Amino acid sequence: MKKLQTMDAKKFLVSFLTIVSVLFLVVNVSAATSELVTIESVEIDGMYESWNEDISIIAGEKTYIEVVFEALEDASDVKIKAELQGTKIDSETQVFVGDVEEGKKYKKTLTLNIPYELKDEVSDDLSLDIKVWNGDFKTEFNEIILRVQRPSYNIGVMSIGTSQTIDAGETFPVDIVLKNVGYNKLDDLYVTVTIPALNIVAKAYFGDLLTLEDYDSNNKKDDTIRGRLFLEVPYNAAPGIYTLEVEVSNDDLTMSKAKQIVVENELTESVIKSGNDLILVNPTNKLKVYKVIPESPATVNENTVVVSAGSSRIVTVNPNSAESFSVSVFSGENLVGTVEFTNIESQVTSSIVVLTVILAIIFVVLLVVLIVLLTKKPEKDEEFSESYY
Known about the structure:
This protein has two helices and 25 strands. It is of the alpha+beta class. The strands form six sheets. Strands 3-9-8-5-6 form a five-stranded mixed sheet, with no helix packed on it. Strands 11-17-16-13-14 form a five-stranded mixed sheet, with no helix packed on it. Strands 2-1-4-7 form a four-stranded antiparallel sheet, with no helix packed on it. A hairpin with a 4-residue loop joins β13 (about 185-195) and β14. The termini are far apart.
């Protein structure tokens, strides 16, 4: 009988502990899932969300979300987050609220970047979720539907195709792919390609681009277009990294995109000074005509020099007693280079004078030595007599 009572006591204790544990877990879960705030209003770009009507926002732009809520608990380290959920890209932002007191109202504004994910549609519905929480409490509101649509006029530069490394003097192609990623048709598009640091530019007409909804198999035009432009790098371009810019424009929009290219140039100078001569170099694949203009009174043996592609010519410069002067070389209207000269002829004359003086001194010294040798009497040889016995 006593044994039976002991077993009943043990069963009762186990049951009691189980019930207490369950109640403790329920209390904790309930506390963890307790609502932190009541969201009273949500304003999107100045428009109040009425919970049953869509608000339209523009892809690629920033949207300002103002949330007004009332605290249901005293809480610290409270944060609020807004998240826009799409089928391809999500976008979210959050701000720190801090401490809240029960029964008090608060207002916070969040800035959300609207993702551009409308690849196959001109507009679509996305869900905006708002969450207010800290380590103990959480309130979520997931009933806001926003209509996201493409900008009225927008163009996407899908690719800029060109060689990564270009040689100076080279004419190279730039392949452009454009796509209409706006709401409306784009008419009369022009594309300009330029390297500002080298002052080179090319421009071409790309025509019209339909919208996604307008395009079908019966249309000859598409919402995507490809084109090619050519740029010629100057043969005297300094080697280095340059920015190639692509600008697309029409009456409704102007947008640009850039990429970097490397220009190589093994011969950066087209005019090289060599003693009393100039060497004119043509590293291009075209014939070049140079105009050589010396500063008076200096002259050159040729004022107009024709240099064939990939070759060079020598121009002789005559100082005509000028102490210093410059020689400028032009290719068309462009200044190719300016070379500074000193009077090489005078330098040569001075060298000859110095050399003559040195030789004269050597001659005088030798002459003195010779005179000394000639005037010196030779010593007589000592005579020895023979003895005969």
